[in-house]
């Protein structure tokens, strides 16, 4: 199953990449591969922008607008003007002081 | 020395979740004091704790790998209701089997459903479980929100004095926790090396047995029919609670409101087909669309939901006409409003899937929201026109 075409914000900085392969390990959708000691994007449309690759790259070679792909969260943020937040964590959102 | 028992009495209180020293989450007492606390300790709660294990840093609760019938019943409740928001365990260190200083440390969330999946998968394995305080949210969602994150992991390692419990410096983090964790930062701050384990808890056994090698399959997220279906109650519930009462009220008012007053008979007989169509569009958007997701054409969830809604409305319209004389305005309203409602509800399912990203949802909303608002206004105008026509004004 793939989501919309050509929307994912995933970008690679080839120069920064050392080919260590951590990003491939953490990617849940097999988006990336290492070819000739550099990371390549196999299929951008499979990317769900979870941010695991970018967050675990010690060399800053990956960039992605990390965020929840959740309509409810984004609608909430439009209405409240705040950060996208689902109501799936329910009332306990305010449990944090 | 009397055997130590784990007695923290309240399971689901989340008062200590954030404010104050959550670090005092584990309380131990001698056998003799257990009875004093028992009135609060409800039967079956904490049933998964079978004893305790002494370590250099104190006692660690030992947990069972058996999922009991009451656990399963809780899982059903959790999937179906707001109970999911309070289905937590205490964060901290737990023992499975009889782990020692060389045993693996597996990181999890303090959501009981996640915790149960993990302990069930550890049958016959001795290991430590480090449950992070994710405010009762599962690993993947919490990683997205950052509560299953680098800071909490480092903090929890330090609170539990993990470096004294085990002699090695390796922790196994579920792969789906990776969006919240920066492995290199954890290593720098705590000295522990993060190894990303498989996506699914059930693969933990084979992963450990194969010397910590996760296959490509273990690393890839899927979204099979049954997983999609399990998530639908949480789509149906909010739609029924948030939208349906308003829809029902307006429908009954439109059909009940006559020049001579409000008529119950008119409300019921005129409104009934539309009340049913309302239910059908919730059914189409919140159940049929998620269940048949890969088989409905187009990638956009809004379009998928609209198609499902339209097909079901066409299918049911004949039935609706039994109650209602065919009225052009009402017919236009029916084909405009109900597929759009289904589309909107289906779009909400993007929050439950394993593959939708934020940029895509934003694009859907950018196009969708003006259409939804426009459709809603037009629907209102059509209903008003119907009333005016009925009253002989038009």
Structural class computed from helices and strand pairing of chain A: alpha+beta
Radius of gyration of chain A: 16 Å
Main beta sheet of chain B: strand number and arrangement?
Answer: 5 strands, mixed
Q: Determine the number of helices of chain A (DSSP H or I, runs of at least 4 residues).
A: 3
Distance between the termini of chain A: 39 Å
Amino- and carboxy-terminal Cα gap of chain B: 90 Å
Percent strand of chain A equals 5-15%
Mean pLDDT of chain B: 84
Task: Tell me the series of helices and strands of chain B, N- to C-terminal.
Answer: EEHEEHEEHEHHHEHEHHHHEEHHHH
The CATH level-2 architecture of the largest domain in chain B is identified as 3-Layer(aba) Sandwich
Quick synopsis:
The complex is a heterodimer of chains A (97) and B (394). Chain A has 3 helices and 4 strands. Chain A is of the alpha+beta class and 97 residues long.
Give structural notes:
The complex is a heterodimer of chains A (97) and B (394). Chain A has 97 residues and is of the alpha+beta class. Helix content of chain A is 21%, strand content 12%. In chain B, a hairpin with a 2-residue loop joins strand 10 and strand 11. The N and C termini of chain B lie far apart (90 Å). Chain B has 394 residues and is an alpha/beta fold. Chains A and B meet through helix 1, helix 2 and helix 3 of A and helix 4 and helix 15 of B.
What's the topology here?
The complex is a heterodimer of chains A (97) and B (394).
Chain A: E1 11-12, H1 22-26, E2 32-35, E3 38-41, H2 52-56, E4 62-63, H3 71-80
Antiparallel strand pairs in A: 1-4, 2-3
Chain B: E1 4-6, E2 28-30, H1 31-37, E3 49-55, E4 58-63, H2 69-80, E5 92-96, E6 104-109, H3 112-121, E7 127-132, H4 139-145, H5 150-159, H6 162-165, E8 170-174, H7 183-190, E9 193-197, H8 204-209, H9 216-219, H10 225-231, H11 233-256, E10 257-258, E11 261-262, H12 264-291, H13 301-320, H14 328-348, H15 358-390
């Amino acid at each position: 199953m793939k989501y919309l075409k050509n929307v994912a914000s995933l970008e690679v900085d080839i120069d920064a990449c050392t080919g260590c392969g951590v990003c491939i390990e953490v990617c849940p959708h097999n988006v990336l591969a290492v070819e000739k000691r550099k990371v390549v994007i196999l299929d951008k449309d499979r990317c769900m922008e979870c941010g695991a690759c970018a967050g675990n790259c010690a060399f800053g070679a990956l960039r992605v607008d990390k965020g929840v792909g959740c309509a409810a969260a984004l609608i909430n943020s439009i209405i409240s003007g705040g950060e996208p937040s689902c109501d799936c964590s329910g009332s306990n959102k305010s449990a944090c002081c | 020395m009397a055997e130590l028992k784990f007695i923290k009495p309240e399971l689901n209180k989340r008062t200590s979740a954030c404010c104050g020293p959550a670090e005092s989450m584990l309380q131990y007492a001698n056998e003799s004091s257990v009875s004093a606390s028992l009135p609060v300790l409800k039967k079956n709660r904490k049933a998964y704790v079978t004893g305790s294990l002494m370590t250099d840093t104190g006692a660690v609760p030992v947990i069972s790998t058996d999922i009991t019938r009451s656990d399963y019943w809780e899982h059903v409740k959790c999937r179906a209701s707001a109970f999911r928001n309070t289905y937590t365990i205490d964060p901290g260190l737990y023992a499975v089997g009889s782990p020692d200083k060389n045993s693996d440390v597996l990181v999890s969330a303090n959501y009981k459903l996640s915790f149960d999946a993990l302990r069930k998968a550890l049958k016959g394995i001795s290991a430590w479980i480090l449950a992070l305080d994710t405010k009762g949210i599962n690993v993947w969602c919490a990683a997205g929100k950052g509560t299953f994150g680098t800071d909490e992991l480092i903090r929890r390692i330090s609170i539990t004095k993990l470096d004294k419990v085990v002699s090695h410096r390796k922790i196994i983090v579920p792969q789906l926790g990776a969006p919240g964790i920066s492995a290199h930062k954890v290593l720098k701050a705590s000295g522990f090396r993060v190894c990303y384990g498989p996506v699914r808890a059930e693969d933990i056994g084979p992963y450990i047995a194969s010397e910590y090698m996760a296959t490509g399959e273990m690393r890839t997220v899927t979204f099979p029919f049954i997983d999609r279906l399990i998530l639908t109650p949480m789509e149906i519930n909010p739609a029924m609670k948030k939208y349906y009462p308003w829809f029902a009220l307006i429908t009954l008012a439109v059909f009940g409101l006559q020049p001579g007053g409000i008529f119950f008979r008119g409300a019921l007989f005129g409104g009934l087909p539309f009340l049913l169509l309302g239910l059908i569009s919730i059914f189409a958007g919140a159940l049929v669309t998620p269940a048949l997701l890969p088989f409905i054409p187009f990638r956009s969830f809004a379009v998928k939901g609209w198609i499902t809604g339209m097909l079901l409305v066409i299918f049911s319209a004949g039935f609706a006409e039994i109650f209602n004389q065919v009225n052009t305005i009402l017919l236009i309203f029916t084909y405009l409003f109900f597929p759009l409602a289904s589309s909107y509800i289906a779009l909400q399912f993007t929050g439950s899937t394993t593959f939708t990203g934020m940029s895509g949802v934003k694009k859907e909303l950018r196009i969708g929201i003006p259409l939804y608002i426009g459709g809603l206004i037009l629907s209102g105008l059509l209903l008003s026109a119907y009333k005016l026509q009925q009253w002989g004004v038009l």
